[in-house]
């Protein structure tokens, strides 16, 4: 083998090992939003507000929180409660449709 072939193989091997490690590190970052709330912070806040532990936040449970004022805006399916998806979208400043969050164009 020539030195050029060896160098090419070494560079290819370096990329082959570095890319998966880089991708895994990117996923491990937790996808924190520009608003500063991480997924763990959002989950913890949701559990704190879900006082009856039914998996959603009612208007009564939201009283006294930052979500009380705009509850109707966050409750996209108008069922009188915030699902985890709707709550997560509200925390991130996004809009949600039936509990699935999608980024708004602000």
* Number of E-type strands: 4
Model regions low in confidence, pLDDT < 50 over at least 5 residues: 26-35, 95-106
CATH class of the domain at 37-102: Mainly Alpha
Structural class: mainly alpha
The major pleated sheet works out as: 2 strands, antiparallel
Could you say what the CATH architecture of the domain at 37-102 is? Orthogonal Bundle
Element-level helix/strand string:
HHEHHEHEE
Radius of gyration equals: 22 Å
* Measured distance between first and last alpha carbons: 57 Å
- CATH homology group of the domain at 37-102: EF-hand
Q: What is the helix content?
A: 40-55%
- Briefly note the CATH topology name of the domain at 37-102: Recoverin, domain 1
| Mean pLDDT figure | 75
Question: Shape from CA axes?
Answer: rod-shaped
Which percent range describes the beta-strand content?
Answer: 5-15%
Number of helical segments with 4 or more residues:
5
Describe the structure.
The chain is mainly α and 106 residues long. It has a domain at 37-102: EF-hand (Recoverin, domain 1). It has helices at 3-28, 39-49, 59-62, 71-74, 84-92, and strands spanning 57-58, 81-82, 95-97, 100-102. The strands form two sheets. Strands 1-2 form a two-stranded antiparallel sheet. Strands 3-4 form a two-stranded antiparallel sheet. The longest helix is centred in the N-terminal third of the chain and has 26 residues, at 3-28. The radius of gyration is 22 Å and the shape is rod-shaped. Mean pLDDT is 75; it is low at 26-35 and 95-106.
């Amino acid at each position: 083998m020539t030195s050029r072939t060896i160098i090419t193989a070494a560079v290819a091997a370096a990329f082959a090992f570095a890319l998966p490690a880089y991708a895994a590190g990117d996923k491990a970052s937790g996808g924190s939003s520009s608003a500063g709330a991480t997924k763990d912070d959002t989950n913890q806040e949701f559990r704190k507000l879900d006082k009856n532990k039914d998996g959603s936040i009612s208007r009564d449970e939201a009283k006294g929180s930052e979500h009380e004022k705009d509850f109707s805006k966050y409750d996209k399916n108008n069922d009188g409660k915030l699902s985890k998806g709707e709550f997560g979208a509200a925390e991130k400043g996004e809009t949600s449709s039936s509990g699935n969050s999608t980024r708004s164009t602000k």
